[in-house]
Amino acid sequence: MRILRCSEIIEDATDRFIELYGDRKEGPGKSIRCGMAWIADAKVVLMATRDQHKPEAADLRRVSRLIDLAEHLKRPILASLQLLSDVENGFCLQDIRNRKEFDTTFLKLISHPFPIVTVTDHSLLQTLDTSLRISDSLLVRGNGSAADFDQNCVKKGQQIIRNVDDDLGLKSSISAMFCQLLTVQKDDLVKRRKDRLRHANS
Q1: Which comes out higher in pLDDT, residue 41 or 127?
Q2: Per-residue pLDDT for 112 more than 60?
Q3: CA distance 116 to 34
Q4: Which of 10-19, 137-146, 172-181, 192-201 ranks highest by mean pLDDT?
């Protein structure tokens, strides 16, 4: 099983990346990388788990502020699969004091009115579970067809799973997906995410 690394996402999928650090009230949030990214014709907020790191409580505030920034600037989000998985699994928070803040951040992400896209490798596709539900679209790199992936939450949640177009390349494929999702009504994007989570928990 191979997860697309943070460094690969930044190096392979962006034309320009400016890292942002938040207010550092709870530390710099060194286990993740977040910032503004330019990908072909798309301007996005990028959030990814740093290579070989596990997000900690100090990262939570940083993620929350980046979601706020994305909404303020009306930008979609490109998130690493590992980060979304960690968010859905509660950031492994042991400190009960962070639980309310985590719940608030989770709701912010689910309610983000602009598209959320994830890129992963085909070798990981069949092992996906909860980490798939927040993302509006999953772009798959590598050999093999994503069309065979028929998880129920995808069918019922109108999630788009597509192979990276070899003719377009990774950057243009991501940009094209954001353009497609930006035609979906904001309320529909949020409803689809909530439906996928609701179905998964039923």
Answers
A1: 41
A2: yes
A3: 14
A4: 172-181
Cβ-in-10-Å burial (0-12, 13-18, 19+) of 195 comes to middle
Q: Within the chain, what is the greatest distance between any pair of CA atoms?
A: 49
Query: Which amino acid type is present at position 175?
Result: S
Question: Mean pLDDT, to the nearest integer, of 147-172?
Answer: 73
With a CB cutoff of 8 Å and minimum separation 6, the contacts of 31 are 49, 50, 53, 54, 55, 56, 58, 59
Structure tokens that stand for 25 in this block: 């009230």
What are the tokens at 199?
A: 């179905």
Buried b (16+ CB within 10 A) or exposed e, 24-61: eebeebebbbbbbbbbbebebbbbbbbeeeebbbbbbb
Confidence of residue 198 (pLDDT cuts 50, 70, 90): confident
DSSP for 5-72 reads PHHHHHHHH-SEEEE--TT-BTB--TTEEEEEEEETTEEEEEEEEPTT----HHHHHHHHHHHHHHHH
Q: Would you give the DSSP letter of residue 160?
A: E
Q: Which residues have CB under 8 Å from 114's CB, separation 6+?
A: 70, 71, 74, 75, 76, 77, 182, 186, 189
**The pLDDT of residue 21:** 74
Q: Degrees (nearest 5) of the Cα angle 171, 35, 70?
A: 90
